[in-house]
Each structure stands twice: as structure tokens, then as C-alpha cells.
Design brief:
heterodimer, A: 280 residues, mainly alpha, 11 helices, globular, B: 319 residues, alpha/beta, Rossmann fold, Alpha-Beta Plaits, 2 domains, 6-stranded mixed β-sheet, 4-stranded antiparallel β-sheet, 35% helix
């Protein structure tokens, strides 16, 4: 037991260091400021619009506009922050040689990776909490109802970001710079949000009878089956159309969390498999 | 403190080889070829070699950061170099490493101390001790951002000493430092050796290495060309005669006798009598020609000269 605690303590030390260092990155701060501006900006914009409009219908439209902008802002900026930080923590440490001073100590590679991954998650969670918190306040001030549905949405957004983070992190463990993992992260984010289209591509393929058409269909089908469907984590439609304090409908939160965790675990195992024999 | 005489091997490599396989159709790089290296307890071993000779590869292999293609490594008698027990006995200072500049010097050490599993009063005691060893007690609360290059290097040394390791591996510890900082680092390293630590120093700074090393090894083309104590290696001992009133004809006679002329000016010169030429022969020529003898001094080959000679020969052989 004591050995396990010591083992985890080493990882936690690395995680806290990663978090402290990551929160100082200028790019991350830039994304965060931009997201805050968008969230506040949407409130100001609708406040300006309501001065020229009268009636409940218009006010509902305003709130919906705020919600729409903010949900997208949190999802996009959250993903950008996640990708940026997940892609850079390991390659940066190889570049500045900090990794040599760490792995030459009694620290296992698994321990190191766990610490780095947990550190990334701390950064993602804090940024998401900041953005979500602002959105929560803005919405509450607008409607005077506690937007509990938003909290569920933020929770699910985190699991979406966890999946993106795990796969970006895995690619970063093989890369010498942050460029390739950033591209991979963006690929996961974009394709993970259009997996339903991939299914459509597969369904509509083969109609011309040409081999190329067939092949595209098969690739789309393969990607549809392998890639996580990130749309599953989105409560955007419900946030737009339900009452702020309504419970989420037609979804099983525990199942979605398990789905996210399974993909994240797969990504993390892939990261370790790549990193355990990597020559540094 | 009394010097500890080298007694047992703390680092041994046996036919250690490393090949970096080329991607696609490139050529494989044989970075290290059957290296048999020994570092003894309580000594400073200067590990020398030109860029790309395989020094950093050796260090990375010793630290388990890369894996050997062939051969084996024994550290403190153990072949399990990745074990926590062995890692605890090795302190490593990489060249030009970054230490988080938003932390204070003391916080950097606390971070590394936690990685050793140290904590509480034990860690505080260790931090106090290593800061004192590297002379950073007064600047412990300063942010690393405000440290000079020399101070950063000393903090690097301090983090490597946290677990009180038996072995210290240092990659270019004095590169980029001013003469005062170099001297300070050199004194700290000599002090550590005197305290019984074994040091492997990889460096380009030949004079620095010559000043503090007990033994040196010269690596070139991935092969350990030579290794031994400074006295064993610097065997070429020339004699320098400073003379005046030397005619051109006498110069010709001296050159014909195998004597090298250095610093020749109007009528004066420094005559270098190589190890294989009799100094009496040179003196006879001078006496016969009524040359004024100003001084006679022995001159040992420098490490730099040995290095250039050994590396040059290795590169010619390889070509």
C-alpha cells in the first residue's frame, strides 16, 4: 500500500508541476481570454439588441442566441485549449530536457505519463470551469433560474475533451514537436463531430459502381466505427430549447461517461505503449 | 578532506553498442561501437570527444533514456539500471537544461525531492544541505527567472545531489559560464569528489577537464580511443630551450637534428626538443655555435594536444 502511495505521489507531483507550468502558457491564456470575451460579448450584444426590440418572444430569441454562442464557444475554445496543451506537454519537456532530469530519478515512464496526463486534465478542468462558470452566471442573470442543465452539459463537454485529450496525448508521445499532435487533435475533434455524416457517406457509397466510390464508403464506415462520436456529448439542442433547470432528456449520463472513459483509457494505453520504449 | 582512492568500479559497460536505425532509405548511424568503459569509485572521469562522437549517447544509455543495440551496463554492480535503488544512486545534470523559471530555487528542489520520494523534515534537511554544497543558500528564495547561468547550473547540480547519490553524471557542466562561475563549479565538483562521490563529466572544455579529472577517456567515431590517468596519457614530455644569438645556419642545423623552432624572432627563439631527440644533442649544437642559452624547461603535452592527436588519428583511420 505504501509503495502504491509513493508511486502515485510521484505522479501527482508531476501533475501539479504540469498544471502550474501549463496555466502560464501564453497561447492558453490567449484562448481563455478570447473565450471569456465571446461569452461576455454575446451578453452585451443581446443587451444591445433588446433595447430596440420589445416582447417576450424577442427576449427568448436573445437568450437562445447567448446560449448558442456560449455553447459553441465553450466547445470550440475548450477543444483548442485541450488540443494545444495535450499536444505540447511531452514534446516540450523533451526539447527543454526537463524530461531527462525527471526520468533519471526513480520515476517510471508510466508514472511520468500518468502525471503529465493528470496535469493536462487539471488544466482542462480549470479552464472549462472558468468558461462554464461565466456562462452559468450570464445565463442566471438573464433568466433568474439556476441553469442546472448547463452543469450537465459542462460535465459531458469535459468527457468529450477527455477523449480528444487522450488521443492527442498519445500522438504527442511519438512526436518530436507539438505540430503533428495538434493536427491529430484537430482531426479527432472535427471528424468526431461529423461521424453521422461518415455513416451517411457509407450508406450512399457504391451507387456509381466504381471502385473508388466503394473505397471511400469503406473508409468512411471504418472511421465511423473507430472514431468516437463526440456529438453524443452535446446537449446543445436541449440547452437551446428546454428550461434551464430541466433535467437532460433521452440520454443516459452514466453510459456516456463510461463511453468517454473507455475511449480515454484506450488513448492513454496507446500513449503508454508508444512511450514505454521511446528513445529520448 | 582526504582524497578517496579509487577502489571499485561504479560504472562499467561491456561491448556497449548503439545503432540509430535510419528512417526510410537513410543510413544507420553507429553511434557507439563496443564501448568498454569503467568509472571507479571516488574519481572524476573526464569523458571527452568531439561533437557526434557518442558521449551523449553513452550518458543516455547509462540513464536508461535510450536502449542499447548490443552489450550491457553495470552500475554499482547491478545490471538492472532502471531500478529505483540504482536511480537513487545517480545524479544527472544535463547540458543547458531548463528549470521552471516561475519557481523559486528552493521550490525547484522540492519538486525534484518529491520525485525521490522525499518529504517533510527529511526533504528540508536535504535541500538545506545541497544548497549549502552548491553555495546557493542565500538565493534559495529567488525566482529561477532571476538566476544567472552559473546559478542555474548550480541549481541543476543541487537537484542531482538531492538523494545523496554515489554517482554524478554531468554533461558539459561549465559550457557557457564565465571564468569565475567555471572556477566555482570546478571547486564544487572537486569538493564532491573529495567527499567520495564518483563523477563522470562529459565535456568539450579540455582545460577544465585536465584541471579536475583523475582519469580521462577520449571517444571518437563511437570508439573509446584511449583512457587512463592524465599522467599515463600525457607521456610526451618535450624540453623547451630559450636561446638568443642564433644564426640562420644554426637554425638549419637544429632543424636537421629534429628540433622544432617555435616563436622565432630576430636572433631569438624557443627550441622545442621532442621526447625522442636527445636534449644534449641540441645543447651541443648551441654550444658549438656560441648560442646564448637563456632557459631550459620541461614541457608536458597538454590534454588539448593529446585530444587533437588522438581524434585526428581516429578520423584519418576512419576515412
Amino acid at each position: 500500500m505504501a509503495a502504491v502511495i509513493t508511486y502515485l505521489r510521484g505522479s501527482w507531483t508531476i501533475a501539479v508541476y504540469t498544471w502550474r507550468e501549463g496555466m502560464r502558457k501564453k497561447t492558453l491564456i490567449g484562448f481563455l481570454i478570447l473565450s471569456v470575451l465571446v461569452i461576455f460579448g454575446s451578453s452585451f450584444m443581446t443587451a444591445f439588441l433588446t433595447q430596440t426590440q420589445i416582447g417576450d418572444a424577442e427576449t427568448d430569441m436573445d437568450v437562445r442566441l447567448i446560449k448558442d454562442i456560449c455553447v459553441y464557444a465553450i466547445s470550440i475554445f475548450g477543444a483548442l485549449i485541450t488540443i494545444f496543451i495535450s499536444a505540447s506537454v511531452v514534446p516540450n519537456e523533451v526539447e527543454n530536457k526537463v524530461i531527462y532530469t525527471i526520468l533519471s530519478k526513480p520515476v517510471r515512464r508510466f508514472q511520468y505519463l500518468l502525471g503529465k496526463f493528470v496535469g493536462v486534465q487539471l488544466i482542462v478542468i480549470i479552464n472549462l470551469a472558468l468558461m462554464g462558470g461565466l456562462f452559468f452566471i450570464a445565463l442566471y442573470l438573464k433568466q433568474n433560474i439556476l441553469p442546472t442543465l448547463l452543469l450537465w452539459s459542462i460535465l459531458l463537454t469535459y468527457f468529450m475533451l477527455l477523449v480528444i485529450s487522450a488521443f492527442t496525448f498519445a500522438v504527442s508521445c511519438a512526436a518530436t514537436s507539438a505540430v503533428l499532435p495538434t493536427i491529430a487533435g484537430l482531426f479527432i475533434f472535427i471528424t468526431g463531430n461529423i461521424t453521422e455524416y461518415l455513416k451517411d457517406v457509407w450508406a450512399k457509397s457504391g451507387q456509381t459502381g466504381q471502385w473508388f466510390d466503394e473505397m471511400i464508403g469503406q473508409i468512411a464506415y471504418g472511421l465511423y466505427n473507430v472514431l468516437p462520436n463526440l456529438q453524443n456529448f452535446s446537449l446543445r439542442t436541449q440547452i437551446l430549447h428546454l428550461q434551464p433547470n430541466d433535467p437532460p432528456r433521452d440520454i443516459l449520463i452514466p453510459n456516456l461517461i463510461a463511453y468517454g472513459l473507455a475511449y480515454a483509457l484506450a488513448g492513454y494505453i496507446m500513449a503508454y505503449w508508444i512511450f514505454r520504449r521511446r528513445e529520448l | 578532506m582526504e582524497r578517496v582512492t579509487p577502489v571499485s568500479a561504479v560504472i562499467e559497460t561491456f561491448n556497449l553498442s548503439k545503432v540509430y536505425e535510419a528512417a526510410l532509405r537513410g543510413q544507420d548511424v553507429h553511434a557507439l561501437k563496443k564501448l568498454n568503459l569503467t568509472v571507479y569509485s571516488g574519481e572524476i572521469f573526464g569523458y571527452l570527444g568531439p561533437n557526434g562522437s557518442g558521449k551523449t549517447t553513452t550518458i543516455k544509455l547509462l540513464l536508461g533514456l535510450i536502449f542499447p543495440t548490443e552489450g550491457s551496463i553495470k552500475i554499482l554492480g547491478s545490471t538492472d539500471i532502471g531500478s529505483a535503488a540504482v536511480r537513487r544512486q545517480i545524479g544527472y545534470v544535463p547540458e543547458g537544461a531548463y528549470y521552471p523559471d516561475f519557481l523559486q530555487g528552493e521550490e525547484v528542489l522540492r519538486f525534484y525531492g518529491h520525485l525521490y520520494g522525499l518529504g517533510g523534515a527529511d526533504l528540508k534537511r536535504r535541500i538545506d544541505h545541497v544548497l549549502e554544497t552548491v553555495g546557493m543558500t542565500r538565493t534559495r528564495k529567488r525566482l529561477v527567472r532571476g538566476y544567472s547561468k552559473g546559478m542555474r547550473q548550480r541549481i541543476g547540480l543541487a537537484q542531482a545531489l538531492l538523494s545523496d547519490p554515489e554517482i554524478l553524471i554531468l554533461d558539459e557542466p561549465t559550457t557557457g559560464l564565465d571564468p569565475i562561475a567555471r572556477k566555482e563549479i570546478r571547486d564544487i565538483l572537486a569538493g564532491l569528489r573529495d567527499a567520495g562521490k564518483s563523477l563522470l563529466i562529459s565535456s568539450h572544455e579540455l582545460l577544465e577537464v585536465e584541471l579536475i579529472s583523475d582519469r580521462v577517456g577520449i571517444l571518437s567515431e563511437g570508439v573509446l580511443q584511449t583512457a587512463g590517468t592524465i599522467d599515463e596519457l600525457l607521456t610526451n614530455r618535450d624540453v623547451i630551450l630559450r636561446v638568443a644569438n642564433v644564426s640562420p645556419e644554426t637554425f638549419d642545423k637544429l632543424v636537421a637534428a629534429g628540433i622544432e623552432i617555435e616563436d622565432r624572432t630576430e636572433g631569438e627563439a624557443a627550441l622545442r626538443v621532442p621526447d625522442n631527440v636527445s636534449v644534449y644533442n641540441a645543447l651541443d649544437i648551441c654550444r658549438t655555435a656560441n648560442v646564448t642559452l637563456m632557459s631550459v624547461a620541461p614541457r608536458r603535452e597538454t590534454l588539448e594536444e593529446l585530444f587533437v592527436r588522438v581524434v585526428g588519428a581516429a578520423q584519418k583511420g576512419d576515412a
